[in-house]
What we know:
By secondary structure, the chain is of the alpha+beta class. It has a single domain (22-135), classed as 2-Layer Sandwich (GMP Synthetase, Chain A, domain 3). The chain is 21% helix and 17% strand. The chain contains three helices and three strands, in the order H-H-E-E-H-E. Strands 1-2-3 form a three-stranded mixed beta sheet, with helices on one face. The longest helix has 12 residues, at 109-120. 28% of the residues are buried.
Amino acid sequence: MFIPVQEPLPADVLYLSKNMGFFSRIFGKDKPKEASSKIKRGVASAGQKAADNEVPDYKVGLNGEFDQSGLAKRVALAFDEDSQLDDIDGLYVAQTSATVVLKGTVPSQDILNKMIKVAKGVDGTDAVDTSQVKVG
């Protein structure tokens, strides 16, 4: 069945494609060109970051800048970088301090286990909360 789409879409509508990666789907924008799931310190401008030792790892953004959601963004990017995880579209990533919070649905326990392993491998992650994830 073909359903015509009004062109162009209104500005307040966010189109979510099944092929859209975690970062784009969750944060509503393309990942920055030089973004990394690894912590980069000392690369942001002085006006954007505090001294390296003043910013906890879970608040370091994609380019070394201070970012309240830095850990969640770096975990989403790490999922995008893994070919087994980049198209899981029913799961969302959030953070509470240094705890990565996964919410939504995953197709299998094996996929969830892989996501936990990847999330734990991101600098700044102390724990991964999966209490809001449904398998199946």
